[in-house]
Amino acid sequence: MKIIRKYILSNFTSIFISMFMPLFVIATVIFLIKLATYTAVIQLSIAEMTKLYIFVLPEILFYTLPITFFISATLTLLRLSNENELIVLFSLGIKPSFIIKTLFKPAMILTTLLIFDFFILFPHAKVLSHNFVSYKKSEAKFNLAANEFGNSFGDWLLYLGTKESDNLYGNVFLFNKKNKEEILISAKKAELVNDAGILRLKLTKGEGYSYSKEKFSQINFDSMTINNTIKTDLTRYNKPLDYWISVQDAKYKRNRFITNTLLSLFPIISLFIIASIGIVQERHQKSNVYAYLFIGTLIYYALTLKLQDYIAYYAIPTISFGWLISTYILYRYKILRKF
Hints:
Layout: H1 2-36, H2 46-82, H3 85-91, H4 96-140, E1 151-153, E2 156-165, E3 168-177, E4 182-195, E5 198-211, E6 216-229, H5 240-245, H6 250-269, H7 271-278, H8 286-311, H9 315-336
Antiparallel strand pairs: 1-2, 2-3, 3-4, 4-5, 5-6
């Protein structure tokens, strides 16, 4: 039995890898196109694009792994059926339940990984991605252009004469008008420094003038720093459970939780329909397998997306047990009565 189980799993593994790679690449391209839209609003380096891609990687894996398992497990049984290997096993007294038990272990492992992915990794990656994009959008508000009017730095109007390198400028003038005082600062050099969300304009070798009706003052300085805090809409949480139970975006999180839970359970509750579709006797049935795969996937995903709008969290047990019972009935009708 161990040899037979190992042989079935080796066939499954080879097909799983061959199916997973193209689906993963397609999903990656789709998400990269989505990430590329951020460049219309913020400037991203290759390293920052890579960081954003890592943030969406758990989501990519979550949407590719369940469908990959469903397709590869079915095609594994189809291959063994077309080569008459399953027929030989059934002739030797091995029951179809052996096939179900063989696929149960990888299905259980995948379901566990998917639950860990969406419940633990997904909130962390989602928050990091949201905060990173929010931070970059706020930072983009302070993109400074040399030799142009209209630059601002907090409450200061800013003019930059020349740009000597990234974030380093020459011949800088700052002007700030308060209720009863006007301040003008000039400097030979200015460096824009981003320190954990605090933008600092470090001025070198300049003069400062303050004017009001009561007094006029002047200072000379070798170095001066002006701070300006970036205002960002950051999301914070201590534990994954805090993310899921928080009232912020409650409806989105509810729908995401229901959908992700049902997709995580999809591999383990689809074993009966996998056997029903994959185990065949005649070669002409092969042409219908891909249609059955598409219809089965479409029905499950449609139920997942639709019922949650009407019965909320009750969609999880309703769809799970309903799918398990209906596919078992199909399994008894198509497989058990024949083998």
